[in-house]
Protein 1
Amino acid sequence: MAVTIEIPTAFRRFTDGSPKLDCNAATVAEALSILTSQYPGLSRHVRDDSGQIRQFLNVYLNDEDIRFLGGEECAVKAGDKVLLVPSIAGGSR
Amino acid sequence: MPDIYQLRCRECGKLWGNAPRSFCEDCFSPLEVSYDYQALKSIAVKADLARRDFNMWRYAEFLPLPEGFQFPNSVGGTPLVASRHLAKKWGLRNLYFKNDAVCFPSLSFKDRVVATALAAAQRFRFKTVGCSSTGNLANAVAAQSAQQGFDACVFIPADLEPAKILNTAVYGARIVRINGNYDHVNRLCAQIADRFQWGLVNVNLRPYYSEGSKTHGFEIAEQLGWRLPDNVVVPMAGGSLITKIAKAFGELVRLGWVEEKPVKFFGAQATGCSPIASAVKRGLARFEPQKPDTIARSLAIGNPADGPFAIKLIRESGGWAEDISDREIVESIQLLAETEGIFAETAGGVTAGVTKKLLREGRIGSNDTTVVCITGNGLKTTDAIVAEYPLTEAIAPKLEAFEAYLDAQLVTPAVAQG
């Protein structure tokens, strides 16, 4: 499926400035591995040493946090957007 | 004089100087303000406090303020209320309420964080400031922006309590209502901070902002006679405040202003949004995000950014986390008002109710010194309890009407059960 990964500014120094990556993937996990194989410098920023998505990186499929969709193995469909957003705000009562 | 503070990554330790940024561009973990404690020790003098007003600026050396900073209006300096009735009812010798329901200017502890965030906004020459907020923060940003001449633009979930929206609008702030919950608003703000040159207090100014929370902890220690309590019960939304109170206590120990002692940190959440409490109780390595469903909307953050740090602190301190139902929140608001004369918002009901639960579970000792943090004012969340108080029938302005009224009132008025 053709999906678009949106890349936040802080990540773009690892993507030659590119703000997004179009790729063909069946799941979010697959999309992320295409991203990190295309831009290997990003790998250690996306996953920790145990291979899990980093604790302070939130990944969304369209509007939903993937943790509500069963995690990174959730299926994607054509035209979906995958968003990477550092977990920075919060505590904002 | 060079700054004695700068941003440091909480995970990899890399130093980033001072800039409007909130996460490490190497490992994408959150940044926090770190201090040169040797230098701090030489400029922070405890005896100087005697000459200063009782507000948060008395701890200025411990805060990331720009050089030559002119203190704006008084913020913080709230009462530490020694509980009499509730302490007796619960069988506790030393129970205190740190009452930020009366924090100025906007009646919540968020005034403290906004004060340090706007100091940073001044330093970085932002003209427009803003925040994502569930209400209290928006109130504080709007009020202090009006005082200091910033343009304010705040982003809130569309379904927020009308009183909290009004309490922001009245200061002339621009309000952008978002169809979504707080976590959606938060995510949007992270993207906005990425795109526009705005000082979003809890996004790109977040490390400076959260330092303001320390003053809640400094005041507790000073008001206890420069002693640390045995237990602190803190409401948790994003999980930041509890870690900053711990940081404050740690700094006072480091500078020798208080004696070191173990302090147990207890976190309080509403069951309808309890990702941190749930992780602590279930022993999870990582919290699981939740979709908030609670009347305690000021705590309704399902994806708490500081959750991992709060969980670690609670565990390492020997504390615990608990959560209570919406019904218990309402009852606890009433109990606190009826016994101590403190009208807290829903989050205050959460901490009071959780304290009661911790007592029942035997986690708080009767001889311990326990401080319960009240972080917002009940006038902001009247919708949560209005149904409890139906209007009574009006009577004629005549003595016989009053006598008839008294006759009809043979039933003793209900008293909240503690």
Protein 2
Amino acid sequence: MKRIILLSLALLALVSAGCVQASREGPVYQVYFLSEEVDRDLALVPEERTLPPETEPVEGLLALLLEGPESEELTRAIPNGVTLREWTLTDGVLTVDFSARYAALSGVALTLADYSVVNTLCQLDGVEAVEITADGDYLTYRDHQRMTAEETWTVEEMEEEGA
Amino acid sequence: MDTAVTRSSVLHSMQLRLAMGYVVVIAVLLVLLNTYPLLMTQNLMFRSQQTALENQAALVVNSLTTADELTAETLEQAIAPLDELDADRILVTDEAGLILYDTGEVSGVGRYALNGEVVSALRGNDAFSSRYVQGAFHSRASAPVMNRGAVVGAVCLWQRDDGQGVLLGEIQHNLRLVSLVVGLVVLGIFAIFTNRLTGRVSTLLGGIRTVRAGEYTHRVSMTGHDELAQLADEFNQLTGRLQATEEERRRFVSDASHELKTPLASIRLMTDTILQDESIDRETTREFVTDIGEAADRLIHISQELLALNRLEEGREVPAERVDVNRRAEQTCRMLAPLAAEAGVTVDTDLEPDCFARCDPEDVSQIFRNLLENAIKYNLPGGKVTVTTRRAEEEILLEVADTGLGIPEEDRERIFQRFYRVDKARSRAAGGTGLGLSIVQDTVRLHGGTVDVAPREGGGTVFTVTLPAWQEEGEA
């Protein structure tokens, strides 16, 4: 009798462990954040993050981008106070609409924020390009609106093309 | 078991410990030798690269200050004429990081250069980074392009320097070579040094083991004046004392056996005679029994003196009483007057008043008794014994002088040894045990005094004993 009880307890423990493991599993993505170290090859550095299984990937990744990095060496490329208004995916082009505060960005700060979003979201199946709007409007001073991950150098390209 | 002990002794040997200490020190020094100069040289080379690249970046930035707008054409016109540039790649971006101009083999124009240096320059700061990878320095310098106080772009220069990389590699190689040679030389010197040191320790250890095995004549031979040589010298002196003590012990056992054997043999002979000779008359038997009694007395006397010597050696507590030495001298003279009369010897005294010693009264009597007995027994018929006392500042002097035959010079040093006799036959005949002077010497030493023997002028011998004088409280 004791053996049966012990065996049952062991099976229960194994099943519970399996359940915990399964609940932890989810798709893994590289979420891009900003590094302030000058001698980094790239200013945008990927941080490996796992989305919960039932999470909608676009919303999940955007939430991680707005939430910020886990590493203390990295910071958000998107300014504080920016929120996600809506997003749409049409013919491989993902349009992300942030709150109006995003429009305050310009110059290299805008480029870094844009490509932290673009590099992160272009990992998703079916997403080939990303357009970013602020309060529904395109930022007209940006030289182009449809952005792809290939437009920025990767570490490998830096090493190959650099001296 | 022996193997285990040997392994254990090797593991705990001084040489191994020294070796480990030296190896650690050498390793630390060699690591320092191979890292610090390299880091310094690398740093200098970085600085050199930084200065060169930053100057070139500044040159490009200056050439762009006249351009109203940064375009591929204006940039080509401004940069191409600059002969001083020797950077491997020159890259110029607009204020958003978009590459406008690129001299790289695979042009990056139209893409975004979001490397750390460009981003830093676009934020208005100069930036530089350099890495030493696979035998070459890879350096990047960037500077902001300003127009009316605003950042309108960034200049970034790439430089790959194989020459300095090779130089650094050669330095590293040479340092490793030098380290290897230095390491081997130091290890060689260390091996010689420790072998010499531990060899001397082993010699000393071997000497100790030999002496421990009972070979007291063994001496350790060690040259030099260092601590080990001093230790060997001390060890040799200690062994010498051990040897002397051992010889004395053997002689004592031999002498004691001999002294005890003689009366025992007499007793055995006489009892055998009495028992085996049935015709022996009563008078002869009485004489033999009397002799047996005398032999037994002699055995008792020897035993008592041996016990007295043993007690002295055990280091009993020394009583510190005020002893009237003159009174003890007179008492002893009176006690031995019959013996002196029998031997036809006159005993005189010359006693200085107030001779008080710090001693045990019975011990003072014992000293006088033994010296006086000897002086009477070994005197000539009609001879004279003089007992003298004198008071010095811190000691009391006792002298017993006789007019006997005297003691030959070669025997004087040995007369205080146990069972040593100048004239064995006469000594035994006189009833001496050969222990009296040993007891005197041990007793005197116990009380912090001295005893000497010297020939007397006009013949005979003088024994001089000093004992510490009694000091009244308050006296110095």
Protein 3
Amino acid sequence: MIRPIWATVRKIEGLPIAAVLATLYGVFMVTSPEVFTGHRIYMSFLQTVPPMLVLGLGLTFVITAGEIDLSFSAVVAFSGFVYAWTFLHSGSALLALVLALAAGAFVGFVNGILVAKIGVPSIMATLAAQFFWAGLTVLLAGGASWNIKGIEGSWIQTLFVGRLFGSVALPAQALWALGLTVVCWFLLNRHRFGEAVMFVGDNPNVARVMGINVERTKIKLFTLNGLLGGFAAVLLTTEMNTFWTTQGEGYLLPVMAAVFIGGTSIAGGKGLIVGTFFGAYIIGSLEAGVVATGIGGYWTQLVSGLVMGASVILNIVIGDGRLAAVASRVRHWSTTAEEN
Amino acid sequence: MVDIQKRFGLVQALRNINLEVGTNEIVGLLGDNGAGKSTIVKILTGVYSASAGELYVADRQVNFRSYNVQTAHRYGIETVYQDKSLGDKQVLWRNFFVGREITNRFGFINVKKEREIANEIMVNTIGFRGEGITVDSTVSDLSGGERQGVAIGRAMHFDAQLIILDEPTVALSLKEVRKVLDFVHKIKDAGKACVYISHDLTDVYEIADRFVILDRGEVVASIAKTDVRMKDLGDFMLDYAHGRRGLSK
């Protein structure tokens, strides 16, 4: 009787990782109730996590296709630069937005060409891209950070990072990131492109003989990731009213961690958008949560490592049905001896 | 195929291949490793294009420049590969329709319809019943024979006129080979043509109407089943493998 329920439960995408997030918040509520029972801390997460989540969504596609992208943190800097520069020089927020997205998409497109057409392994191509675009940004900006105070009160600020519902002050970027999560879920799970991504990641030879254009799929994939990187840069830069040359640097490892603890397979072929969503909130909440418990900032990394490890194990055991596989293997080992 | 040639740089993989497959005929394509069997398959199915020569499908000449896997599918040519027909981690309904999904005009997949048809194929065409396999099973849960069954069922569903089986029984247990051969009999019964590639003579002999033997990129013989016994066919191939030519009757 437990089996069918268990099977249904296992099918719910991202459930293990959602449970980890809930547990985490539960623990934080016990250890520091004064912080975690009020709504302000959550509003703060809803402000800081969205850029990370948007980056994670793009990376989920890339990893599902069996590739990797290390350049998105440089995209956050480069697109942020393009955004700030255009806004300061033209005064047009719309132009700034369009060019920032275009810049991100361009970086991604170049990555895609390098990987798909020239055949450079993606880890190498995007590592080089990471240095190149981050370096170019520093060069172009002269190493300086720019204040874009002029954006305050503009429509773009209200639209992307405004505070909603009066005193609740829900950051608009949280809704944008949520909306994008839904769009990306449909794109990966219900669209022809997403299916191509999964088959390419599963086995590019199969994809090819089934008529999928593997090269074009990869180029689209990296371009999409660049575009989302550009959008993350817009969210971040607008929220902070400032562009600074190192603004993407802290994102590389946390975003990868968010995708992996979300259950997306590092081997390719399987990606969980819902997992990435909860993964991003877990990673984004850990530091503040650990600090708030009062055990001290030195513990943050250690606890982060523990939570990541636990999430990944939970995903393997529950999500992949590995538990059933292990159980049947044990049964197999214990019965073959009698049969022979 | 008329005078088909294929070069890879300096290597001439195929020279002057002439091959015809009749309606509802099962041709066994035989030859040692490296004889060019797989290259022929890839040209037929649009994965490679030929360096020279002509290809006709149902008497219509194929333009190699625009010929690819999708056009081959449209012409009714389907392929079942030894190990690269299905995505291992993907559910079966996706595997049935990958590359030609049923979508709306924005490219979104009609999952309900794909699952319905996939289920139809599995029950009626392949004959999976009560084996615990559903359209939501992932390929990695299937045995080797079942996988080939899925691939063959898929080919038949898409109304293939010619189904190419590229070493479908390699690495399968005898019981699984039996299953695959039963699927191939279904192809014949359905009035479709088939090219069956193998270097296992016993499989091919059972199902093929005619044998085409390749050696080093050339067709060296085309023999109807009625004209040859299995042992002679085996000896003939061995002669080629050892570089001794000629039919030893």
